[in-house]
UniProtKB/TrEMBL annotation:
Enoyl reductase (ER) domain span: 10-363
Keyword Zinc attached: yes
Species this protein is from: Weissella bombi
InterPro entries: ADH-like_C, ADH-like_N, ADH_Zn_CS, ER, GroES-like_sf, NAD(P)-bd_dom_sf
Alphabetic keyword roster: Metal-binding, NAD, Oxidoreductase, Zinc
A family per Pfam: ADH_zinc_N
Superkingdom in the source lineage: Bacteria
Keyword check for Repeat: no
Name recorded for this polypeptide: Aryl-alcohol dehydrogenase
Chain coiled-coil ranges: none
SUPFAM superfamilies to which the protein is assigned, alphabetical: GroES-like (SSF50129), NAD(P)-binding Rossmann-fold domains (SSF51735)
Signal peptide: none
UniProt GO MF annotations: S-(hydroxymethyl)glutathione dehydrogenase [NAD(P)+] activity; zinc ion binding
Length: 371
């Protein structure tokens, strides 16, 4: 079938809305009419060349939409179901079987390798050339083919235009706190970086009843947003030493938990130094530079832990419904962080994300949709 996709033809090029050809769903696959798709920093890492991918490529991995049809063997979804599209996982390796799909042994291959699980392609140019699929969905398209286990069914009374980012950015931040760090009530959590991922993690800290939920950034406007979402303290690290401020807030003990969403070496080292004895740092960012760490003096001496977390250590089918419930309760205000853009304004949306104008840009791909 003919679809419209935002195609990226090379590093640092702009997206071009292009007619493409999409195959029919094969066994275990679902055809989804995409309503909207969030723009995530990971999309930008392909655009700027940090993460290599064969071109032409159709990016987008925070899709939400409506099931159009299903392939053979699909039993959990039917035409008309409303869905959020998550990341791809094989479902067969030891980590997938243990309920840790973010640690899937084939994660990089299936999400950033450019092909589907069987090594073939579903998206093609009108001339017949294969296009790379991203995260098993390529949601910068009017339609998408995805594996059944990528999908999460959601209630039809929810606005699909704000739900897509639950498939990656919002899930990564909140899941890292709720699933991986698991701060106890009364504990202290500091979040470095108040983009979509960081603010989601911060809201999860509030949900966890942490006594101190500290937001650190250099953007005053973002810090004000953090306050409005429940941050107990904010620190502008362009003006003060964040480590000293965190130590003062925590009576000289340091934070028990920290989340880095920046990938910036100096920020990561500040996060480490701000930890208490036995403190834990989770880092989720795709950084561009190596991070030098003094393991003897900053890690071993204080029995601190650093862990990398992918997709919030989440099972999307378990976490996303919980996040929707938190949203209904007014605890996870994803609508306040999202700004809707027309599909043809995709390049402006990326620019607004890069310069910090918008926390979470969301492309409305199906303009006929109404909640």
């Amino acid at each position: 079938m003919k679809i419209k996709s935002a195609v990226l033809n090379g590093v640092d090029e702009e997206f071009k809305l292009t007619d493409m050809i999409l195959d029919e769903p094969q066994a275990g696959e679902v055809l989804v009419k995409i309503v909207a798709s969030g723009i995530c920093h990971t999309d930008s890492t392909v655009k700027d060349g940090t993460v290599p991918m064969p071109f032409p490529a159709v990016l987008g991995h925070e899709g939400s939409g409506i099931v159009e049809s299903v392939g053979d063997g699909v039993t959990n979804f039917k035409k008309g179901d409303h869905v959020v599209v998550g990341f791809a996982s094989c479902g067969e390796c030891q980590f997938c079987r243990a309920g840790m799909p973010g640690a899937c042994e084939r994660f990089n291959e299936l999400n950033m390798g450019g092909a589907m699980r069987d090594g073939s392609h579903r998206i093609h140019t009108v001339d017949g050339d294969d296009a790379s699929v991203f995260f098993g969905q390529s949601s910068f398209s009017t339609y998408s083919i995805v594996q059944e286990n990528n999908l999460v069914k959601v209630d039809k009374d929810m606005d699909l235009r704000i739900l897509g980012p639950l498939g990656c950015g919002f899930m990564t931040g909140s899941g890292t706190v709720l699933n991986s760090l698991q701060p106890e009530p009364g504990s202290s959590l500091v979040v470095f970086g108040t983009g979509a991922v960081g603010l989601a993690g911060m809201m999860a800290g509030v949900i966890s009843n942490a006594a101190h939920v500290i937001a650190v950034d250099i953007n005053p406007e973002r810090l004000e947003i953090a306050k409005s979402l429940g941050a107990t303290e904010t620190i502008n690290s362009a003006e003060v030493d964040p480590v000293k401020e965190i130590m003062a807030i925590t009576d000289g003990k340091g934070a028990q938990y920290a989340l880095d969403t920046t990938g910036v070496p100096v920020v990561i080292n500040s996060a480490i130094k701000s930890l208490a004895i036995k403190g834990e740092l989770a880092t989720v960012a795709v950084g561009k530079k190596p991070v030098p760490v003094d393991f003897t003096n900053d890690i071993v001496t204080f029995s601190r832990t650093i862990k990398g977390v992918i997709e919030g250590d989440a099972i999307p089918q378990e976490l996303i419904p919980k996040l929707v419930d938190f949203y209904h309760k007014g605890q996870f205000k994803i609508d306040e962080l999202s700004k809707l853009y027309a599909f043809e304004d995709i390049n402006q949306a990326f620019e607004d994300s890069k310069n910090g104008t918008t926390v979470k840009p969301v492309l409305v791909i199906d303009e006929s949709y109404s909640a």
